[in-house]
Design brief:
2 domains; 13 strands; Aspartate Aminotransferase, domain 2; about 375 residues; globular; four-stranded antiparallel beta sheet; seven-stranded mixed beta sheet; alpha/beta; Aspartate Aminotransferase, domain 1
């Protein structure tokens, strides 16, 4: 008896819940504050026209410029289709399906679990502490069989950097047994928290980076893995032959030029100022219970009636990201930092909404 196409698929893929990206969730808004993107586009001009030829597997100019930016040697840098591909490559290269596990600490980025489950690798979760820092004793108790540990810093969606002393302890605990992967997708907003400089001291430390956030190139899909040369050599065994198209490499090199880096830093300064303004304005809204500190381009906010707030804003074309189902984030929405005009429109829409216990009836 023949089977359906679905039945021919791997069992773990049939059971997989895909990552619900902001674009996959949809919406019909004109104020998009749900994907942690830079709110404005930049003017780019393609200079490479040799589209009849395959690109380099690892474009030399992109690698050299990112290595210089990160303070590393070119052989310590791998470029890929976003940092998401870096996550998958690390699991593919280091984890035996059905035997090994990855570990991460929710609430955190959802692609760690999706990538592992897609590849048939088990997931271990150790919830973060109440302050969203690492629970090191609980992690230590779960390390048997773990090959890769993902630590997002600053963490998405909470916005906090991870305590560097805790990271050093984690690296000491895992030496010789597992990789520690510091996901630094938002590090440009708090560069002092980067651990890329630690790679010389810890052969099992890997750092993930991206051009999607501070560089305003989310649509380019360009990310970087930083590690010891022996780790990079292993990842090059499993990466696709041509991970970056010629136009992507062209624009990435421009973004990493001296002028491009100066522009990025100006963008970070603008968003950081908007974040400070928005945090203060949100604190004065009756429907807001808490605004959590952030060193990123987003704010995590707990509302007194998050579902109502989310739908009310959605209906007005202001699209946020619901975090209500993440562990410990009941009532929370994540708000990407937009332009000042977009932030002001958000506050204008929120101010009339009542807080907990506030009557909506007119006297």
């Amino acid at each position: 008896m023949s089977r359906s196409i679905t039945e021919l698929a791997r069992a773990n893929v049939r059971a997989l819940t895909p990552y619900q990206s902001a674009r996959r969730l949809g919406g019909n808004g004109d104020v998009w504050l749900n994907a942690n993107e830079y709110p404005l586009t930049r003017d780019w001009q393609l200079s490479q026209q040799t589209l009849n030829r395959y690109p380099e597997c690892q474009p030399a100019e992109v690698i050299a410029r990112y290595a210089a930016y990160a303070g590393l040697a070119p052989e310590q840098v791998l470029v890929s289709r976003g940092a998401d591909e870096g996550i998958e490559l690390l699991i593919r290269a280091f984890c035996e399906p059905g035997e090994d596990a990855v570990l991460f600490c929710p609430p955190t980025y959802g692609m760690y679990s999706v990538s592992a489950e897609t590849l048939g690798v088990a997931c271990r979760t150790v919830p973060a502490r109440a302050d969203w820092q690492l629970d090191l004793p609980a992690i230590t108790a779960q390390l048997d069989g773990v090959k890769v540990i993902f630590v997002c810093s600053p963490n998405n969606p909470t916005g906090n950097p991870i305590n560097p002393d805790d990271l050093r302890q984690l690296l000491a605990i895992t030496a010789g047994n597992a990789l520690v992967v510091a996901d630094e997708a938002y590090i440009e907003f708090c560069p002092q928290a980067s651990v890329a400089g630690w790679i010389a001291d810890y052969p099992h430390l890997v750092v993930l980076r991206t051009l999607s956030k501070a560089f305003a190139l989310a649509g380019l899909r360009c990310g970087f893995t930083l590690a010891r040369p022996e780790v990079i050599a292993l990842l090059l065994k499993v990466i696709a032959p041509y991970p970056l198209s010629t136009p992507v490499a062209d624009l990435a090199a421009q973004a990493l030029s001296e002028a491009g880096l100066a522009q990025m830093r100006q963008q970070v300064a603008t968003l950081s100022e908007n974040r400070r303004w928005l945090a203060d304005a949100l604190a004065d809204c009756p429907c807001v219970a808490s605004v959590f500190p952030s060193e990123t381009n987003y704010l995590l906010v707990r509302f007194t009636a998050a579902e109502q707030v989310f739908k009310t804003l959605w209906d007005q074309g202001i699209i946020l990201r619901d975090q209500n189902r993440q562990p410990g984030l009941s009532g929370c929405l994540r708000i990407s930092i937009g332009t000042r005009t977009e932030c002001e429109r958000l506050i204008t829409a929120l101010r009339p909404l009542p807080g907990a216990g506030t009557s909506t009836e007119q006297a």
